[in-house]
Design brief:
Structural class: mainly alpha
Distance between the termini: 24 Å
Strand content: under 5%
Number of strands: 2
Radius of gyration: 22 Å
Order of helices and strands: HHHHHHHHEE
Number of helices: 8
Helix content: 55-70%
Length: about 180
């Protein structure tokens, strides 16, 4: 695997942001495509730009740098009201540093024991009158069936989009969720 040899041949003087891109090229064939897509989104849109600006080398990376990065992102996440993005950033960085540690490019994983706090998910739901209002609003639109499947069967958006005719057994009044569709 050429990307594997890339990781082993890396100097610890590489910029951390550039190492993260090299790590992405390694994991592309090692993880599920949906996982890889998540890693790419996280690294290319957040980790790389932040660390490119700092100019920190892989050999200079310390837990304090990651705490500062997490702090910057927690503020951005709170503004966007997203739940566990910080944990996703940490997972990618931790995995990348584990690989660097395995190939003895670094002496320790700066992300070890640095996992950001995540908020407990508290689901919300529609009151019956709100649900009816939503169903009536979707009536006659392309979203009507999706809204109905969501309300009556509790399906997620990815499950609704993944439905195919072959998933329906009209003789037994059943349908199965065989696969999902994600942004990847």
């Amino acid at each position: 695997n050429t990307s594997l040899t890339k990781v082993g041949a890396i100097s610890s003087d590489i910029l951390f942001c550039d190492y993260m891109l090299t790590w992405l090229s390694y994991v592309e064939t090692e993880v599920d495509p949906v996982t890889y897509s998540g890693y790419c989104n996280c690294v290319e849109n957040n980790v790389y730009p932040y660390f490119k600006e700092t100019g920190i080398k892989l050999s200079e990376l310390e837990p304090a740098h990651l705490r500062e990065f997490s702090g910057m992102n927690e503020r951005a996440i709170q503004k966007a009201e997203k739940g566990n993005d910080g944990a996703h950033y940490h997972a990618a960085i931790h995995a990348a540093l584990e690989l660097a540690l395995e190939y003895k490019v670094v002496l320790s994983n700066a992300a070890h024991k640095q996992r950001p706090k995540t908020e407990r998910f508290i689901g919300s739901f529609y009151m019956p009158d709100e649900a009816l209002e939503c169903i009536h609003a979707a009536e006659g639109t392309r979203l009507e069936l999706a809204v109905l499947f969501g309300f009556f069967y509790g399906l997620r958006r990815s499950e609704i989009v993944g439905l195919k005719w072959q998933n329906f057994d009209f003789e037994n009044n059943l349908f199965t969720i065989a696969h999902t569709v994600t942004t990847y």
